[in-house]
Specification:
The structure is a single chain. It is built from 30 helices and 24 strands. The strands form 4 sheets. The protein has a 7-stranded mixed β-sheet with strand order 1-2-6-3-5-4-24, with helices on both faces. The protein has a 7-stranded mixed β-sheet with strand order 12-13-14-18-15-17-16, sandwiched between helices. The longest helix is centred in the middle third of the chain and has 25 residues.
């Protein structure tokens, strides 16, 4: 059953650090000019959970509420969010889809901003549409989002001016509605598909009378095609009121500056009451014993067994947090058992889950979900239900509970140690959760203290009882099957399998005791033989006696967080035409565990530690990486060294990989995007097998012995470059590497050039190719791809990147705004770092199948214009400014530093690019853009692809969510 965010399901609570508990506090003082009311403004006013004092909460005289917080991560930036507390649930029958349509109209003209100018204004300030300027419409709210790249007060003033224009000053002109109508319909078309149809069937089966199933945000075609500006304005005036609005600002401004700006912009907004809370249900909690079979060729096989029960009000109090935490541990243990079986050899299912969650305030749903290989649903049901029954009957072991307590404690401790550099997005998200879910934001210190206060009470018995008290018994449940083909025996077989599963013999779990990590001694610590620091960026570069390279960048931008990257020579460059899948299984290597530990044992051994153990094959190297803490850095490096020296190659890793192959091949053409991805590699490379889909049999034939023969030498001898960035102690970091990977036998000092493997050609067979898809019958994609060059010439790469942004801006105007045909046209440039003299420039637009020729003509006209005359200077600036702002903010996060540190020794010349980029970008002129278009975007040189519906395409469905 689909669950909704009004209250979190227990399975989600496990991953949410703030599920801990207690101690009464006083609510924070609020602004002085609030309207007199007996109703609480905020959930913490009636809760004994201590609210984080870093927030400032207030309400203007007109009833609009606001939440403010000064925060310096990333430094010099801010987020602005405006939540209108009405979504598609508030719509009348003749308004279905208008909340989302109205969200679109926010960008189409207001009293002080002409139509089409809002986005341009923001682009001139360095905000990229989509990444920094966006909005989303849900069932319960519409949220407008601005990410400010600078903390200057003028930009904050502009942002709040735009929010105020959206809140109360939209013009909603009829001609603008007509122009935007095609865009909204295009979004509806693009979001349709097999997954949405399956979701609607789920709603119809689970809660056939519920209002939420009839108020999906994207709406109905009938309303969207006929809605008038007057209808939209009526909805606007009814729902966009101060009392129905909350403004959130988090960022690097003094609170008094933010508060003054809010008051200046919003105090004169005319007061208006909030709409009546809409109905969400009804949901019949007595509904039982029914079975649904839903078949679609694109759906992998799954069975859901669930039982509805009455909703229970659980306000955010310390006592309820304690209860939620204890039962969340129980749900986590059950899901841990289900996952353990999925990882074993001959596993009966691909995955399974057990959870209970709220359906708004209408019901709760307790569910067992099982995903299986086609035809194996019965074995999956039997195994999953048996595991759940064992847990509910006999409870949990002390070792299982201890593992989950370790995870909860580590999450809480890490939150404490890193809290001072938590990001703007974290605090904004917590503020919006208070508004949407009445979840009181609390400090990590407080949460940890409450956790420790009850940790000793989290016994196996208490956890067992908490789950029993919360979950609905699965007696005579609802059963829903979905897949490509109906189950043999139909509904009777499904219910018979459930009855059999409930009667299977069960036994109490055995306590396995404590497991210890088996790896720690990798030899004598390696000696540093070279050590120098890059003066410009402060990256310290070391070489150990065995050839391992280490790059360190100490920075406190994220307190107590260290990002680690390990790259080993090889990767996808080991593929050949004769053996294109040679390293394909590398991404599944860790599923085979280590020599001394299965992957399931690793999860237990490393519980409560901030350690990653992934492994993958990148473009030119095998990679490992993750984010850890100073406390766990030694263990993190021990795990990486163990993967290098003793991978397990257990057969269950390959079996798990193979369980997904059938579904992969069955859905190759299920959407336009899948169909394009399936075919384009071979089309552009003239069938080079390294870049082409191979046969299903080839993938099924892959095994670990062949992978081992392909990568064992690289793991043992290949060059290694390690990078660490973050809040690290350099001496401790060097010691952690010295005792692990640098303690291994000597390795190759340099990454091999692999010149032959770096040869990649772009087809000479240009012109049009048609690709058929099996998605919706009205969906089509128009694409054009040109060959360009590699990224050796950085200035050329930047010019092509800026050209791509220019094309996207212009294409958006011509396809989305002028023609109303495409929801989100795109353009991109990729100059290869791996393949010599290889790069691509692409343009794409998803359109109605009847508009392919018109869209194609618009694209060609744009290309002709770009090639014939220099582009307008304003377009250049709107394209350039967001790129410059992204450069200015890139080193305010660990990811930006890692992009420089990861190859600081193997590719040192690339560090110089960092400093050159702004000047190179600023030097690009309209004439340069024209020259790039003339050089590369010759229509006759393009590979043109039309992705069109084939005979198996479906009639358009109705998507269930929307984001503008």
């Amino acid at each position: 059953m689909m669950l909704f965010p009004r209250a979190l399901g227990c399975a989600l609570l496990v991953a949410f650090p703030a599920v801990a508990v207690f101690q009464p506090v006083a609510a924070q003082d609020l602004a002085s000019d609030e309207l007199a009311t007996d109703d609480p403004l905020w959930a913490f006013e009636t809760s004994d959970v201590e609210v984080d004092p870093g927030y400032t909460f207030g309400r203007l005289g007109n009833g609009m509420r606001y939440i403010l917080r000064q925060n310096g991560t990333p430094e010099g930036t801010a987020l602005v969010r405006m939540r209108i507390d009405s979504g598609s649930l508030d719509e009348a029958e003749n308004e279905r889809g208008l909340s989302h349509f109205l969200e679109h109209m926010a960008f189409n003209g207001s009293r002080n901003i002409p139509e089409g100018e809002m986005i341009k204004l923001l682009e001139r300030e360095g905000l990229a549409f989509g990444a920094d300027t966006n909005a989303s419409t849900g069932l319960e709210a519409i949220t407008y989002k601005l990410n400010l790249p600078r903390n200057d007060e003028a930009l904050l003033d502009t942002a709040l001016m735009l929010m105020r224009e959206t809140a109360s000053e939209l013009t909603i002109a009829q001609d603008a509605v007509e122009r935007e109508r095609g865009v909204v319909l295009a979004e509806r078309r693009d979001r349709a598909g097999f997954a949405e149809r399956a979701r609607e069937d789920n709603f119809a089966f689970s809660a056939p009378e519920a209002r939420f199933a009839q108020r999906l945000p994207i709406g109905t075609i009938e309303v969207l095609e006929t809605a008038s500006a007057d209808q939209m304005r009526a909805l606007y005036e009814r729902t966009y009121t101060p009392a129905n609005t909350v403004l959130v600002i988090v960022g690097d401004f003094p609170v008094e500056v933010m508060e003054a700006a809010v008051r200046a912009k919003f105090s004169d907004w005319k007061a208006g009451g909030a709409p009546v809370e809409p109905l969400t249900g009804p949901v019949d909690v007595t509904r039982e014993g029914l079975t649904d079979i839903y078949v679609d060729p694109a759906l992998s096989e799954s069975v859901q067994i669930f039982r509805l029960s009455p909703w229970k009000h659980e306000p955010d109090t310390l006592a309820n947090r304690q209860t939620q935490l204890i039962r969340a541990i129980g749900y986590a243990i059950i899901n841990r058992r289900l996952a353990r079986l999925a990882r074993q050899a001959d596993a009966p299912y691909r995955g399974a889950s057990y959870s209970t969650g709220d359906i708004f305030e209408d019901a709760r749903s307790t569910s067992v979900g099982v995903s299986t290989v086609d035809g194996e649903w019965r074995a999956g049901m039997l195994a999953a239900i048996r595991i759940v029954n064992e847990a509910l009957t006999y409870g949990f072991t002390a070792a299982e509970v201890d593992e989950q307590i370790k995870r909860q404690r580590t999450a809480a401790e890490n939150a404490v140690s890193g809290f001072s550099t938590y990001s703007n997005s974290y605090f904004a998200g917590s503020a919006l959760s208070l508004v949407a879910n009445d979840r009181v934001p609390a400090t990590p210190d407080y949460i940890l203290a409450q956790f420790e206060a009850i940790a000793s009470d989290i016994t196996p018995e208490a956890v067992h009882q908490a789950v029993l008290d919360h979950a609905a018994p699965l007696t005579n449940p609802l059963i829903r099957f979905s897949g490509r083909t109906a189950p043999g025996g139909g509904e009777e077989a499904l219910r018979s399998a459930f009855t059999e599963a409930m009667s299977l013999p069960i036994a109490a779990p055995q306590d396995t005791g404590i497991l210890e990590f088996a790896y720690g001694d990798f030899g004598e610590a390696g000696e540093v033989v070279a050590d120098q620091t890059d003066d410009a960026l402060g990256i310290r570069k070391l070489i150990f006696a065995n050839g391992v390279r280490l790059n360190l960048k100490k920075t406190d931008i994220r307190e107590d967080r260290i990002r680690v990257s390990v790259r080993i020579d090889g990767g996808n460059l080991l593929r050949t035409r004769d053996d294109p899948l040679r390293v394909y299984l590398a991404d599944s290597l860790i599923a085979g565990g280590l020599g001394a530990h299965s992957v399931d044992e690793l999860q237990t051994v490393l519980a409560g530690r901030s350690v990653s153990y992934g492994f993958g094959s990148g473009a030119d190297g095998f990679t490992m990486g993750g984010t850890t803490t100073a406390r766990d850095l030694d263990l993190q490096m021990q795990v990486f060294a163990a993967i290098l020296t003793d991978p397990g190659y257990r057969a269950e890793g390959v079996e798990r990989f193979r369980k997904g192959i059938d579904n992969f091949f069955e859905t190759l053409r299920s959407t336009p995007g899948r169909a394009y991805s399936t075919a384009i590699g071979a089309r552009l490379s003239d069938g080079d097998p390294r870049f082409s889909l191979q046969s299903k049999e080839d993938y099924l034939a892959l095994d670990f012995p062949n992978l081992q023969s392909a990568i064992a030498d690289r793991l043992r001898n290949g060059a290694v470059e390690i990078a660490m960035v973050g809040d690290l102690d350099e001496a401790a970091a060097i010691a952690a590497v010295a005792s692990t990977i640098a303690a291994l036998p000597p390795r190759e000092a340099d990454f091999q050039p692999r010149s032959e493997a770096r040869k990649r050609t772009f087809t000479q067979d240009r012109g049009l190719t048609a690709i058929e898809h099996e998605g919706e019958a009205d969906q089509a994609v128009v694409r054009m791809i040109w060959p360009t060059t590699d990224d050796t010439d950085f200035a050329e790469s930047l010019r092509l990147a800026l050209l791509a942004r220019v094309v996207r801006l212009e294409l958006t105007d011509r396809l989305r705004e002028d023609l109303g045909q495409a929801y989100s046209p795109s353009a991109g440039s990729s100059t290869s770092r791996i393949y010599d003299d290889y790069g691509t420039f692409s343009i794409a637009a998803s359109v109605d199948v009847d508009e392919v020729n018109a869209a194609r003509k618009a694209v060609l006209n744009l290309i002709e214009d770009l090639r014939s005359d220099p582009i307008d200077q304003d377009v250049i600036e709107r394209a350039r400014k967001p790129i410059l702002e992204s450069y200015a903010n890139a080193l305010k996060g660990l990811g930006g530093w890692m992009s420089l540190a990861a190859r600081a020794q193997s590719e040192p010349d690339r560090l110089k690019r960092w400093f050159a980029a702004p000047d190179l970008l600023n030097a690009i002129t309209p004439e340069d853009i024209q020259a790039e278009a003339l050089q590369y975007l010759d229509p006759a040189a393009a590979v043109e692809v039309h992705v069109l519906p084939g005979e198996a395409a479906k009639d358009a469905g109705t998507p269930s969510s929307a984001a503008g």
